[in-house]
Amino acid sequence: MGFMEWWDGFWATYNTVIFSIGVNAMLALSIYVTLSCGLLSLANAAFMGIGAYTASLLTMQFDMPFPIALAAGGVLPSLVALVIGIPTLRLSGVYLAMATLGFGEVVRVIVLNLEITGGPMGLNGVPPITEWWHIVLLLGVTIYALARLRRSKTGRAFEAIKEDEVAARLMGVNVAGYKLLAFVIGAAIAGVAGGLNAHFTFTIGPNNYGFENAVDILTMAVFGGTSNLIGPMIGSTILSLLPEVLRHFKDFRLAINGLILILVVLYLPKGIWDPRRIRAFLGRNAEKKVK
Amino acid sequence: MHGRANLLARRMVSHHLSQVPMLEQQLINALSLGSVYALFALGFTLVFGVLGVINLSHGAIFMLGSYAALLLVEQMALPLWVALLLAMVATGTLGLIIDVLVLKPLRKRNAPHLIPMIATIGVAIMITNISQGIFGAENKRFPQGTIPEDSVSLGNLHITAVQVAIIVIAFVLMVVLLGVMRKTQLGRALRAIAESPKAAYLLGINVEGLFLLTSFAAAALGGAAGVLVGVSFNAISPFMGQPMLHKGIAVIILGGMGDIRGAMIGGLFLGFAEVLTVAYISSDFRDAVAFGLLFLILLVKPSGMFGKVLERKA
User: Fold this and answer.
1) A98–B299 CB contact, under 8 Å
2) Which ranges does the record mark as transmembrane (chain A) (predicted)?
């Protein structure tokens, strides 16, 4: 009995944090997809916003069932990604980062000025219908799909483009097509995550999906490491829990967040989850034992 | 937090519009707003051009410039122009420290461009949060009587002394920087580094020293922009850096990244575009102007208005 009571209390206090971990993991994976194809896109916060608004409007104003609303929240951002991706993805490196950042601001200003999105007030009273298993299920599907993708022809094409775009093109890889595909997949995942998120935070506003959030998503992925699927998930989990852990630092909580980010970038160039480093570390210990 | 920052950005534009809404007046206001944008973007573009780093802590440095001037005027009763110079030295030193502690180790490791950019995000978060902890989140103002309130009237035109000072200071700093880059041995060395740090090193240029100098100068320019904005709008807050950073990003893309002349013209262009949009179209689109322009230019001519060919990999 004691445990159940403890659990109820724990769940009531921390369920939003736990939900956020799941949603943030999806967001980190969404940017992992584009990074795995060598694209530094910062548009995922905007795609998340488009998904969140789409899903919320469908459940609030059109009484759509949640699954359909969520699906629409994934489809609309992908369509937008398809349209803006064709001209934008010609850009490389920091230019793409800046262009996608610009796209994010344009989306924010549009949402801010539209009537249906509630303007600066955003949407209030989004029904809180996200259950824990929705998140687990969709996160699981995302992980499974991405793991399959990684080992497929498409995944290998992504990797080839990331390593050397010119060489990939010479090998006959359809570089523009695969880049667009990565961009669209990332947008879909971010959109679904946005839909899930909106249905447990109760309110959403245009400023929830701006520059800071774009940067947060990138940070989670880079912090964890982007050489495989586990890194972004570890990164998002740690960074979602950090504010809770650092609660005692009160006013300077964010400063410590920033410091951790700098230290990881300086001392763990491949993120926290770097299989090679971990293997080397374990290997060294194993050798010691043998001796 | 974002809302507050936007409020400031809005004030920055609306402040200039509170007077006579005629075209000549708008142009003067646009010129002073644009000069500040240009000055801010100058440091930003300098770091990208020479170090190849998008320094996202430039907005936070700008913000600290404002506070430095405020403290010097408030606590030590220094005249404003002395405070401006000292604030530039202070922010420049901060830029130097950031370079030594964060950017230099990454340079040594030869990290891809994305990595230092993320590190500077961490720096910006730290500076902003610590400033908020120390100075508080509310807007601070210069003590009364420390900012000259004189103004010149030419017919219907109304120019404040602060506006004149902003335009003059910004232009002097820009011309000096451009002169140094174009005409001096130092400028040639910097341009050589921008072309290829490795080749510059082989030619006997002190690359590491010039990297440090660039970081110092860029941060000092950012701090100067901060002081001018702080004086001009008389509202200083820890969150004033973020909207400025957004504008800075737009400006250096408009002008072509790493292009000093482009940053100047791009800054002025953005100032004019914003003021005229608010005056003649709608104030709803004020925030969209910068990024709408950015988005457009990237689609049409990614190298910026004056940029050359760029196939720099990041």
Assistant:
1) no
2) 12-35, 42-60, 66-86, 93-112, 132-149, 180-200, 220-242, 254-273
Take residue A186 and report the two structure tokens written for it. Answer: 């990332």
- The mean pLDDT value for B161-175 works out to 88
* A250 has a pLDDT exceeding 60: yes
Element (H, E) at B88: helix B80-98
pLDDT of residue A289: 57
- Cα separation, B197 vs B206, in Å, equals 10
Structure tokens at A264: 């990881």
First to last CA, chain A: 50
With bands split at pLDDT 50, 70 and 90, how would you rate the model's confidence at B1? very low
Q: pLDDT (tens digit, 9 = 90+) per residue, B14-49?
A: 444 444 467 778 888 889 999 999 999 999 999 988
Indicate the pTM of the whole model. Answer: 0.82
Flag whether pLDDT at B4 surpasses 50: no
- H helix and E strand count, chain A: 12, 0
Structure tokens at B302: 């990614």
The answer to whether A32 touches A226, Cβ cutoff 8 Å, is yes
Complex-level ipTM: 0.79
pLDDT at A78 over 90: yes
Which domains does chain B carry?
A: 2-138+156-300 (1.10.3470)
Residues of A in contact with B105 (CB under 8 A): 266
**Side-chain half-sphere CA neighbours of B241 within 13 A:** 31
Nearest CA in chain B to A93: B314
Are A262 and B119 inside 8 Å of each other by CB? yes
Dihedral class, residue A268 (left if φ above 0, else alpha if ψ from -120 to 50, else beta): beta
Asked if the Cβ–Cβ distance from A261 to B121 is below 8 Å, we say yes
Please name each of the domains of chain A with its CATH number: 17-290 (1.10.3470)
Q: In the numeric block, which tokens belong to residue B245?
A: 């950073």
